[in-house]
Amino acid sequence: MMYAIVDIETTGGHASANGITEVAICVHDGERVVKRFETLVNPGREIPVYIRALTGISNEMVAEAPYFKHVAHEIYELLHDKIFVAHNVNFDYSFLKYHLASAGYDLNCNKLCTVRLSRKILPGMLSYSLGKLCAHLSIVNNARHRAAGDAEATATLFTLLLNSDTNKHIPAALKQRSREQVLPSNLPKSDIDRLPYTAGVYYFHDSKGKVIYVGKAVNIKKRVCSHFTGNNSGHQRQEFMKNIHRITFQECGNELMAFIQECIDIKRLWPAYNRSQKNLDFAFGLYTYEDQRGYIRLAVDKRRKYSLPVHTCGSMLEGRNLLLHLVEDHGLCPKLCFIQQNDQPCTSAAGQDCACNGGEEVSDYNTRVIAALKTLKQNLPTFAIRDEGRNDEEHSCILIEEGRFYGMGYVSHYFDVDNYTNLKNILTPYPGNDYIRNLVINYAERHPHKKVMFERAVVAV
């Protein structure tokens, strides 16, 4: 079996927006290095100052070097029929695969990561960076952060790993069914092995244990593994893969529970790599306030961070239509509800005797506003969803109270879900939002047999 031990230097951290400045390949026959290749490469762009300081490769050094397309054929011939080996292999492989594809070559190799192999074959090291490993193992590297020096050091390390692999970790990693070669270099395979084939939520942690991504799945193991397929060369994916050090999970009874738990945890943990669910609340709300004369006024406005609207709306138009119904059904003043915003006479049935002209007592008008809001709240549903649990001994339960998500949890098969007060006491309250509320309401409409209705509570405004 032949191995190509590779190291490259680049102008930046992801292939799609950066060039290669140096490539070194050590061809290894399983016992020793039998061939060496190295070349500087003109990246076709400026090398950043910090990269020049790190590698010592300057713009002047690569000015006369070949462009990658001119050495692509030779590099492909050295790599395509061998096992691709590197320290943090996904970085080097993604760069070379991307730039070879740009030159017309399709690289598809089995891969081995000497970071992952070192963790297994040489456990207990304080650090598995190439520099720290070389220092600990007395591997000489006279050209640190240069492709040839690092490739030679990796080749020496790989020889040591081959000779020390008494538990056959290397053959296991190369098995056709093994997913290990596509895993992030810092992620233990044991974390993958522990994942269940059930619905739930999973969490990616960085080196300090902080959650950097939250996801939900019908099948946790299958979904997590799908994150690591392919060789996307974009910046976000490369950074994402590099920062995954641990995976934890939480099993849920069903997909709906997983959806809700994911949303709750994204809001709670604010992970760096979650984008789509950080701002899913409806943008507008119906607000009340008392003016200088004491009249309660209604207005639709953009949601404010620390205020609680009496009702949420998806758009200004939706909010205006809601206000129109309240005005018509309860005889409210269109001017005090900002439906009529001009200096013309009030268009309400009361005319000159309308509250906006002081023609109606404050207490009388406010009583009608309170009644309108009470009716609005009473028309919002209160119900529970009783569904599959995490095992055969329990059910999951989600409670919507007056149109708002209250909380959720798991109850015994023998628990009386129809008892509203007892149910509230046993469920865990969570902060809700419009996204969760709509998830549950839409699910209830599709599965009415799982819905447990309660009498509408009378809510004081």
UniProtKB/TrEMBL annotation:
Q: Which PROSITE patterns match?
A: GIY_YIG
Q: What does this protein do?
A: DNA polymerase III is a complex, multichain enzyme responsible for most of the replicative synthesis in bacteria. The epsilon subunit contain the editing function and is a proofreading 3'-5' exonuclease.
Q: Which GO terms describe its molecular function?
A: 3'-5' exonuclease activity; DNA binding; DNA-directed DNA polymerase activity
Name the SUPFAM superfamilies on file.
GIY-YIG endonuclease, Ribonuclease H-like
Q: Which residues form a coiled coil?
A: none
What's any one GO cellular component for it? cytosol
Query: Biological process (GO) annotations?
Result: DNA replication proofreading; nucleotide-excision repair
Q: How does it assemble?
A: DNA polymerase III contains a core (composed of alpha, epsilon and theta chains) that associates with a tau subunit. This core dimerizes to form the POLIII' complex. PolIII' associates with the gamma complex (composed of gamma, delta, delta', psi and chi chains) and with the beta chain to form the complete DNA polymerase III complex.
Q: What is this protein called?
A: GIY-YIG nuclease family protein
Q: Where are the transmembrane segments?
A: none
Q: Which Pfam families match?
A: GIY-YIG, RNase_T
The record ties this protein, via NCBIfam families, to: dnaq
Q: Which domain of life is it from?
A: Bacteria
Domain GIY-YIG: from-to ranges: 197-275
